[in-house]
């Protein structure tokens, strides 16, 4: 009653905030627009995303986190503070506890910056949780039992693969190949095949509406506009599902290979559990059409897409906070807290 508990998924593509008792109250792209002359923030989130690639010279719309790391430290801090404050509103008398899931590649200096940003937003206690653990909890896997659970979280910047048992990560792998890299692969393909330059947003549209990574699974087509590299003028071409599979093949193969690598070093008992339960896909990249089917075929293991895969991490942070409230700080079932301002 006297506190607010919030979970934050600080993702490279999207930031989601879960407030205890209310659910997800904020879901916005990780984009900030700044006026380079006045250094003032012009827009944050969806409003800033609409400005990407369309700003006048002095306004710069950027994604401060890329490839699973914080590329622009100060802007990430501004963004995090803005979102936390928007999510909790004006509640100066309530004790704020925050659990933040950070991109897997961030350094300890960056972790400290994230904790500081949350503290400056009024948090009295800040805990960090690793991405695969939050994703697994949020996907409904009981990671605390003595049995292997496997999650593949495909976000914007990174794919995190992990096998968990008794609340801890047993084997894992993280690669900087995920949704952004799919978009890049589409841009490269369209450039090579059609001599057409397209932007990131068009590439993402193609990925969501046309792409299939499993042969023969989808038959969509889409007219796309861009700039002809030869004439320099606007041009329209039509792209189809089957050719887009070709465009993404190499990138998808890297994700399958990273998953295989983790399975290969997983202890046999846990591997047997995973064979029974299947692998769970989370993150926006889990929605890539046909990916589950492709992984089943390549790995010969059942693969399930979590329900609402883009919200698993933020739900996991909220649930981790609930668990933490229930257990003592020295419990066996710790959350792998990476750092905190509160007493550990
Ligand atoms: N239907 C879809 N098909 C394919 N990709 C999708 C779909 N919907 C969303 N995505 C992609 O999912 C990615 C974002 O996923 P998510 O929000 O889980 O990432 P994130 O948590 O911000 O990133 P990270 O985990 O790397 O920090 C984007 O690249 C987006 O284009």
UniProtKB/TrEMBL annotation:
One of its GO terms (cellular component) is cytoplasm. The keyword ATP-binding applies. Belongs to the FtsA/MreB family. It comes from Tumebacillus algifaecis. ATP binds at residues 12-14, 156-158, 204-207, 284-287. Gene3D superfamilies: 3.30.420.40. HAMAP family: MreB. CDD domains: ASKHA_NBD_MreB-like. The gene is mreB. Forms membrane-associated dynamic filaments that are essential for cell shape determination. Acts by regulating cell wall synthesis and cell elongation, and thus cell shape. A feedback loop between cell geometry and MreB localization may maintain elongated cell shape by targeting cell wall growth to regions of negative cell wall curvature. Signal peptide: none annotated. Pfam families: MreB_Mbl (PF06723). GO terms for biological process: cell morphogenesis; regulation of cell shape. Its main location: cytoplasm. Forms polymers. It is found in: Cytoplasm. InterPro entries: ATPase_NBD, MreB, MreB_MamK-like. Keywords: ATP-binding, Cell shape, Cytoplasm, Nucleotide-binding. This is Cell shape-determining protein MreB. One of its GO terms (molecular function) is ATP binding.
